[in-house]
Amino acid sequence: MGNPKAFISILRNEAGYRPVSERIGDYSEVEQTLNPEDRKLQASRCMDCGIPFCHWACPTANRQPEWQDLAYRGKWKEAYESLESTDDFPEFTGRVCPAPCEKACVLKLTNDSPVTIRENECSIAERAFAEGFVVPRIPKYRSGKKVAVIGSGPAGMAAANQLNRKGHEVTLFEKNETIGGLLRFGIPDFKLNKKVIDRRLEIMETEGVQFKTGVHVGKDISGKEIMNQYDAVCLAIGAEQPRDLPIPGRDLKGVYFALEFLSQQNRVIAGQTFDADTRIDAKGKHVLVIGGGDTGSDCVGTSVRHGAASITQIEIMPMPPAHHNPATPWPAYPMVLKTSSSHEEGCTRRWSLETKQFIGKDGVLTEVELEEVKWEKDAEGRMQLVRTGKKEMMKVDLVFLAMGFVHPVQEGLLAELGVAADARKNVQINGRYQTSIDKVFAAGDAHLGASLVVRAINSGRKAAEGIDKFLKK
Ligand SMILES: Cc1cc2nc3c(=O)[nH]c(=O)nc-3n(C[C@H](O)[C@H](O)[C@H](O)COP(=O)(O)OP(=O)(O)OC[C@H]3O[C@@H](n4cnc5c(N)ncnc54)[C@H](O)[C@@H]3O)c2cc1C
Ligand code: SF4
Predict the structure, then answer these.
(1) Does some domain include residue 174?
(2) Average pLDDT in the 295-323 region?
């Protein structure tokens, strides 16, 4: 700890977002950066607590106090090395992690101004790239073992990165045209510029990871062939089955899954074109986003940039408390009202609303019927939905279903391989990240269920450890 009094004398200073009027006109990242001197001051606020709750709360167990101190001292290379020893891609987590570490920071508890851990992390990563500290490290040893990693989101990328560094020959299969999973085709560019992914992929490719894009394993090549050709397989196929809303009118033109909208927009930014019939354009439209979470918020930000006439986001659950929620005390992740940069850009947010039916004319969506609900505790203390009978109609042109993802797609590869599923239909693994089939492992949302980038990275690292041990047996 460089400056033991900094937590008193230096205030939390967030870099903040670009002004709304400027940022809604483009898809560039909304978050700004501090200059290096201010960044060092922010890092100096870390108190190097005896029990670092930030470290406990970080799903990949980053050593925050260590790299805060190194950043404060301007030792950017060492700070990056510390960071990278537990997190393969701090340039991703530094941008998009919801930072459970900050919610567990002791300075959050005492005066609600935790260390800006996530922003400091991003600055360390960017400084490391800018200074040329992040260079390909070609493995000196090769084991002669071949591993197929299927799915190239953060879990697959982390597993491939770790396995390659351990000397195995790794092929990363991806059904989409580009590597990155939801980093590429889910998270909007205004939160994560895709050049940040490309920069990392170049390094991984030079280090020896082979990428095979446009290959849907289970369709273009069978699971059996993969099993025959490789010594081990890692399933990092995500949890791609979206939660649907099977109510009357679901098939009307104008009702889409959130990811149909978001992935198309990311592809448009990447230079792809879509004809008028397939393009989902929110310009001048009244948009309803169903689902109050982050994916819904991404639909809001994207609709704003399209120039929607109005945007409403609804949630079936009640509005959470604004600042403190006694149900989730420190150091747990607080279930409180989250207002994202997209919300600030303009949308109406409403809670405790159930969607009853979509109504249309000539097959095209025109209205939605909603009903107000209440949440009451039953005799066992469980929250129960109670319909109030208070209904309303809302004029809408576009609906985005952003109600989460239920589990990995079961049809195709999983069905062919016959790997066991858990009670939630995620891929079942043991403590070594091994599935019910000896040489098949799993990582990321495929076994966690829809989760977070940092959890996917950590899971990819753990699966790589399990595979490495298996291959050395
Ligand atoms: C819109 C949206 C925004 C999000 N924002 C955030 C955020 O801000 N912060 C955060 O921490 N998390 C966020 N998340 C969650 C996060 O993106 C995921 O938890 C994370 O990407 C999961 O990583 P993964 O590698 O397990 O799976 P994915 O990223 O889903 O990658 C799986 C990959 O496997 C490929 N695949 C599937 N089946 C096959 C097959 N048979 N053959 C070949 N390839 C296959 C898929 O095409 C996909 O590319 C967001 C999610 C969404 C949907
Ligand atoms: S990965 Fe997330 S939880 Fe971990 S240190 Fe970074 S911001 Fe915090």
Answers:
(1) yes
(2) 97
